Amino acid sequence: MEPMKPMEPMKPMSHGEQWWPNDLGDPSSTGSQNSMRYAFFSKARRLLIEKDNNFTTYDSGDHQISGVQQSGGGGDPAFTSQKGSVNLRELRKISGSRFVDDDGN
What we know:
Layout: E1 29-33, E2 36-41, E3 46-51, E4 54-59, E5 67-69, E6 78-81, E7 84-87, E8 92-98
Antiparallel strand pairs: 1-2, 2-3, 3-4, 4-8, 5-6, 6-7
Region (Disordered): 1-32, 60-87
C-alpha cells in the first residue's frame, strides 16, 4: 500500500469571471439571483448591480453587503448587511449604464 501524500493547501475562493471594472478592485462579496448579479466593494463603498447587461452603481454608505434576499412580487431585491435588510431604494444611486464589451455587444 502506498503512503498518503500530503494535501495541497487550499486556494482562495474565486469570485468567478470578473464582470466589474478593474478600478473597483476585488469585491468583498458577490452573488446572483434570477437574472441579476451583484458585487459589493467595501473599500469603495460601492454596490454594483448587473441585470440584462445593464449596470447600476450604488453608494452603500455604512452598509457592509453580504448577501441578497428573495424579493417578493418581482420588486427590487433586498440585500443583507450588518444592519439587517437593506433595499436598493435606501441606497444612493450613483450611475446606470449599458455595458458594451470588446465586440461592441
